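dumping this here so i dont lose it
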């Protein structure tokens, strides 16, 4: 029985108060499914959306969230391959046109007319969320819906980023922002892919998590280190630096530093999106080291399925804490202060 009303976290204006209140349950359109969201991760992107950090407007009023794991409870008349009762994930890319140059070549994150969950369409900080059937991630029924939630954005994004880095098994990758949601999963995907990792973040809690449970071989504390560039390079056996750098921090400074410590022929992959930040790299060093600097943006449907499959095979343990949907404001507060090691997952029933 689908209720007419449900609990949701709503904002009426950018940066305005979060309102935990009842709103109507939407009806799926012909090509959509209605998903009873059980758990939703909280991604730093949700905080950017609330604060209006980016040069792209959100819908208003807005229900945020895009790491939603749940069960299909209704579907439109054109939907054939998703069944009622299926376990699915609502990702950042809620839908895309499926017809443009990019969609046709399975680069659907680059679609010029995407629907973005918790940004241009209502997201997963509610009990019942709409998703385009073509884009919902398929979650095997034996997987726990709380632990899989962070994989639906953080996991997919870092897995794709590691593939884009071109790093090969046995090579070194530096994860910048390693203690956060994306960073913690990045270390585990890297390890599962045969890469060796240097974690960069700050604080003893994150240091311990990275070294003891995420699989990093070295930890550089950016606020204690007197020379991050030297320390990162020194962490590789020949002192020439990591083959790849995954930037998942929410701060401009490391985006300027990475080109300095990446190995000659190495690749810097930008994933984090600090407000108003610019990339800057010395032309001389970039040339004589032949480095590559690129961006990486979520993943396509195949990347999503692969990232979930790594989890299903027991290779990824998402470090998460669960609180009620009603407690979202306190999660944002901790996130703003950089106090979250791993991810927070919201239980939509509380
Ligand atoms: O598709 C994409 N490109 C994509 C997908 C998902 C998320 C991009 N993102 C973006 C988010 O919008 C956000 O800007 O990735 C960024 C990281 O998201 P997150 O992992 O959800 O954020 P977090 O959990 O708050 O972790 C950020 C970590 O960065 C560290 C913090 O201590 C925290 O652990 N950090 C900071 I802030 N400055 C640092 C520095 N100078 C740093 N770590 C190392 N060096
Ligand atoms: Zn996200
Ligand atoms: Zn398209």
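and the seq i came up w/
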């Amino acid at each position: 029985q689908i209720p007419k009303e449900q609990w949701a976290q709503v904002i009426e204006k950018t940066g305005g108060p979060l309102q935990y209140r009842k709103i109507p349950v939407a009806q799926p359109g012909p090509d959509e499914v209605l998903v009873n969201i059980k758990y939703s991760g909280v991604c730093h992107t949700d905080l950017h959306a609330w604060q209006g950090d980016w040069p792209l407007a959100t819908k208003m009023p807005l229900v945020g969230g895009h790491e939603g794991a749940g069960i299909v409870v209704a579907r439109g008349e054109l939907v054939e391959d998703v069944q009622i009762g299926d376990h699915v994930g609502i990702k950042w890319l809620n839908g895309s046109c499926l017809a443009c140059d990019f969609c046709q070549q399975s680069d659907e994150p680059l679609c010029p007319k995407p629907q973005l969950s918790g940004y241009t369409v209502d997201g997963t900080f509610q009990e019942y969320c709409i998703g385009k059937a073509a884009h919902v991630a398929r979650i095997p029924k034996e997987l726990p819906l709380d632990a899989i939630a962070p994989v639906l954005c953080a996991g997919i994004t870092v897995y794709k980023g590691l593939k884009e880095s071109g790093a090969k098994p046995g090579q070194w990758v530096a994860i910048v922002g390693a203690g956060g949601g994306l960073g913690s999963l990045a270390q585990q995907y890297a390890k599962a892919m045969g890469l060796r990792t240097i974690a960069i973040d700050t604080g003893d809690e994150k240091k311990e998590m990275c070294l003891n449970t995420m699989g990093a071989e070295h930890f550089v504390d950016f606020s204690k280190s007197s020379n991050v560039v030297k320390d990162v390079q020194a962490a590789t056996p020949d002192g020439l630096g990591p083959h790849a750098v995954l930037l998942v921090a929410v701060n401009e400074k490391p985006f300027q530093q990475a080109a300095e410590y990446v190995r000659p022929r190495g690749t810097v992959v930008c994933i984090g999106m600090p407000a108003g930040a610019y990339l800057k790299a010395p032309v001389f060093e970039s040339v004589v080291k032949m480095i590559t600097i690129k961006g990486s943006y979520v993943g396509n449907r195949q990347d999503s399925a692969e990232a979930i499959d790594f989890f299903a095979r027991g290779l990824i343990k998402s470090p998460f804490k669960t609180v009620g949907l009603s407690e979202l404001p306190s999660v944002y507060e901790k996130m703003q202060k950089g106090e979250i090691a791993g991810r927070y997952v919201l239980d939509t029933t509380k």
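The radius of gyration is 20 Å.
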